[in-house]
Amino acid sequence: MKNFAERHTFWAIVILLIAAIFLWMIFTVWPDWLVDAMGRKKTFVNTLLNGITLGGLYFLVASGFTLIFGLMRNVNLAHGSMYLLGAYIGYEVADRTGNWFLGLAVAFIAVAISGILLQILIFRRMAGDDLRQTLVTIGISIIAADAMLAIWTGTTYQFSPPDWLFGATSLPIISVIRSSGTAVYITYPVYRLVVLAVAVAVGVGLWIFLNRTRIGMMIRAGVNDRDMLAATGVNVQLVFVLVFAIGAGLAGFAGVIGGTALSVAPGEDVRYLLASLVVVIVGGLGSIVGAAIGALIIGLAEQFGLAYFPTYGVVLTFLIMVVVLAVRPQGLMGGRQ
Amino acid sequence: MNGRRLFSGSFSISDIHPAVIVTAVFLLAYPSFASDFFIFQIGAYSLILGTIALSLMMLAGYGGMVSLAQLTVAGFAAYLVAILGDNSMGVMGLGWPWWLTVIVAVLSAALFSTFIGAVSVRTEGIYTIMITLAVAVAFFYFVRQNYVLFNGFSGFAGVEPPTLFGIYWRDPMPFYYLTLAIAVGFFGAVYYGSRSTFGLALQAIRDNPRRMRALGFNVTLHRIVAYFFAGIIAGFAGILLVWFNGRVSPGTIGVDVAIDILVIAVVGGMRHPIGPFLGAVAFVLLENFAIDLIDRERFNMVIGIAFLLVVLFSPDGLLGLWNRFRNKVRFRGNALLGAERVNTDDPASTGSLKKN
After folding, report:
1. A53-327: CATH, from 1.10.10, 2.20.25, 1.10.3470, 3.30.1490
2. Which one of A107, A113, A146, B130 is CB 3.0 to 4.6 Å from A90, fit for a cystine?
């Protein structure tokens, strides 16, 4: 952080300014000219919160994607399928047992196991052949999408999480002050805040896991130099399996979290695959911090696009990607190739 | 090599491999014995898909850049034909003459492809597939949401090819010959171009970009130019596609279809321009006749499994399978006949057991 401020003083100032403006816009009661220019404050704050929570969801999906790539150079294009598989499995379990948390846990474990199987049965056989691995994941995603369509049909499923997760809460942010003098506070769905909290917790957990544990150390060493790690006597294949399990499990976990926030339907796999792709392209492949920054940017861009220029929301996301690629091909936080 | 002989005048009919003549006669005579369904739905459609896959094969096989956005480029040209020409939806349809529409559509598609190339060649290898996939998905969502220009979800219908020389070009036989002419033209262009200076440089860049850069070649420019040519091929194929379907909608350029194109190219084989056409014929035949064997709904499963098997066991597709089979047979023949030199490293030599 300090390094960044020293090396890129200009950008640090710009980022601080933008953050300050946003904070001011959140907490102040909007004067009339601002309402005229931007519409109601409620829309703005809701969009902002939606963007941040959507960013949290994208981070959950993309962190597994980028983790797997970072270590194994395997672009897992079946990641979206794993998201959807986790959502369906979680739904089945939650629906039959009536326990949403059990569904969450089973989704994580089941998808993690599917990831382990993929790694052992398929990817290990073609280690070092990036393109072929990627093509295989495309084949798997075609088959998985069709199999899931056969089992769960095209119906849209809706989770029913515990009541205390549902509902809305009022935030300490004043929307408008009525002529009578009473302040109207902004209300926001609790569940979306929970998504954000989970994302932050997963992010912090991953950071601790990677930076403060012995296995995390091995993984980081593997990212830097796989062969050297193997030469020091570490069973690299075991590390690969573990990372694949965590990455895939996170996708399944995100499937339940995201499926509850929105809904579960065929086609979601492509949507989240695209989101993961753009997030990691913007953030930098293989970097967890990059995934967090990319997810935040893309989530915000998508929601602001949706609220303020509905038709061109997708284009905004895409433009961000193009600009980042043009200025910094390796992504915002990506290392040199 | 053929080209050099062709232009130096020492080219004779006996230099042409018999398989090529047989194929040519078959393709030309095909409409005389096939039913309209086979001419139009199987023949012409295979050729169109093959041409789109050819543009991917050219990028992936010679340039090492697997672009999932070639269908998007084709779809862009198809949309332009509907927008600039006539359609029956009452949206856009500027009514330009057909030749102007075609020229503008192809050139715009080529520029669009160049743009995609310029964005994606900044990075290398595995990134290309991700970036082009992102472009394809983004364009799909954009087209689906934009009603002013692209008429959103329903797209355009009633797009007709022109009636020229008194022939209605959407009739099965004329349309078949039209697609055949364009497909063979591009096949020849890619085949010939792969031996040109540019083609050889592109293949060298695929194999070792650093060395080529050190030799003074502009690696980025070569790649972008390759995207431009691929865009021209895909653009023409897109125009044929919209004339074939009579309509174009976001579904035409969906991600699943873009992946079908990749499947076609990979299953056919990326080493020789004939591969995409083989893949397309196999794909279209499967698409039409697999329903006799399995539930129509499960078609994607069949395609996915076929694709997976090919990637897992024969990385160079049907072509590779054929080459291996041929080598095996030839090896046996050699063992019997004694030493005969065979050229195995050149997949382009459609070689046979021709004995002198």
Report:
1. 1.10.3470
2. A107
